[in-house]
Design a protein that fits this description.
Strand content: 25-35%
Order of helices and strands: HEEEHEHHEHEEHEEH
Distance between the termini: 51 Å
Radius of gyration: 20 Å
Number of helices: 7
Length: 258
């Protein structure tokens, strides 16, 4: 360091200057997020959701019947179910389709259940009588955060599909009660950061996915140490970062709808 340059006044400032993210983003800075609607013309609602280089096609389709178990148990209202998959060319190396292995991918099952649970948390299914809303999330390009992009984009695709049903008179009441979005947070090089891309996700010691409503209610928090532990203070910081990111995502959803 040259003598005429200002010296860091504390160890904290020195550490702040030494920390950099692979993307050079600030710790609380998200990747560029965009929504391209009507990407799948035959769906009732569709969105190409991009979190940086991560791209997921989210589509919503309406079926005028409910699952057999609902009919047998005489459960009123409708249903929502989700499916998630990664296209073979979405990663650096070709990913086999589950059908080629003769069984479902365990990770896919976990994520599609998360998507379904999350969306059902902000829907009043009784306002969808005798209808099933199918959500399909297909990862076009994976660079970290595919499940969070899927949830955020799927809500927007659902909103578009429901708007169509309401406008056409096929639904009397709006089943959607709130916005929904999801974001990843983690501990990378001992710092809490927002919206992990692949290099950060790969090397993070703590990885978390947070799903929240537009009104600030938690739907799900998935958090784990990768052969590491973390403190209550770090967890609080991670949740604070997630809340900031989700507020930004909800604002982007509202802007797109307007």
């Amino acid at each position: 360091m040259k003598p005429d340059q200002p010296q860091p006044s504390s160890l904290a400032e020195q550490l702040e200057q030494a920390f950099t993210r692979p993307s050079n983003r600030d710790v609380d800075q998200m990747r560029e997020v965009s929504f391209q609607t009507n990407i799948a013309p035959h769906a009732n609602g569709s969105v190409l959701c991009s979190f940086g280089h991560t791209q997921v096609i989210c589509a919503a389709m309406i079926e005028d019947r409910v699952p057999g178990w609902m009919r047998q148990q005489k459960v009123e209202g409708g249903w929502l179910t989700a499916e998630y998959s990664m296209l073979p060319y979405s990663t650096l190396y070709r990913k086999d389709r589950p059908i080629s292995k003769g069984k479902q991918d365990g990770r896919n099952i976990e994520i599609q259940r998360l998507i379904g649970r999350s969306l059902r948390a902000v829907l009043n299914l009784k306002n969808m009588p005798n209808k099933t809303l199918w959500i399909d999330c297909d990862v076009l390009r994976a660079d970290g955060g595919t499940r969070t992009a899927s949830i955020t984009g799927a809500w927007l695709a659902t909103r578009i599909a429901i708007n169509g049903l309401l406008e056409s008179g096929k639904l009397e009441k709006d089943p959607i009660v709130d916005h929904l979005a999801a974001i990843s947070v983690g501990v990378y090089n001992d710092r809490c950061i927002l919206d992990l891309d692949y290099p950060e996700d790969r090397d993070a010691t703590v990885d978390a996915n947070v799903v929240m409503t537009g009104s600030g209610q938690f739907v799900e928090v998935q958090s784990s140490g990768e052969e590491a532990t973390y403190t209550r203070t770090q967890l609080d910081e991670l949740l604070g970062l997630a809340e900031k990111g989700i507020n930004e995502l909800v604002d982007l959803q509202k802007a797109k709808l307007s």
